[in-house]
Amino acid sequence: MRQITSWLTPPQVSAWDVVDILVVSLLIYEALKLIRGTRAMQMAIGSVFVLLLVYLSQAFPLRTLGWLMQNLLAYAGFAAIVLFQSDIRRALSHLGRARFFRYLGRSERAADTVEEVVTAASMLAKARVGALIVFEREIGLRNYVESGIPLDAAVSYDLLITIFQPSTPLHDGAVILSEERIAAAACFLPISVGTQFDKDLGTRHRAAIGLTEECDALAVIVSEERGEISVARQGEIERRLSPDDLRQRLQMHVLQRGPNRPGTAGARR
Backbone phi, then psi, for 223, in 5-degree steps? Predict the structure, then answer.
């Protein structure tokens, strides 16, 4: 009777037990994602079968089976490393691209991103090719990323120049940079309806202003009519910037994550 009562009594679950279960579940989920569609998936199924045989050999007097399983498991780890070394490399590479590890080298990548954008904006301005490049900061831009064509590509001068060529299908819209990568191109942004800005501002400029009115993003605009570079932030725009001016603004507000101080964005309109 006492044994039946112990079975019916619910176990005591602490907060650490919940954390433990969540961590193990996450590890299993990530492991299944990594091995899905690979030879390792077949190995995982085989491993479950082997563990079942080990359990049977211990639960019942199956001495020969138990001896065989013990010797098999002793060399299974070495065999797995040899047979699935390519899958292991892929898994470790995937782990290295995880968000946690991205932050470890963020400073150097962010500096490279700024230089690539400055170079691309300078060349586009000289060629009178319009462009709109948005830097995601603290507030996420997922809704706007999903409105465009996802890329998840490294930021490079060559790719930015190619995207904004008028002959390409991705030139009409904004490029959004997130975590030092090109998240998407041809993204739609909200147009500002403000009347306090110069009449000669085009659609790209008003889209940049409209976005920065809603969030803390920073937008770089290249005018195809005048070949000038502008920066929009906090719903205000600073125009006629030189490449050095642009580099300074990006270093201040992207590299250093400078605070959004009122009245510092619209020095020139």
Answer: -85, 130
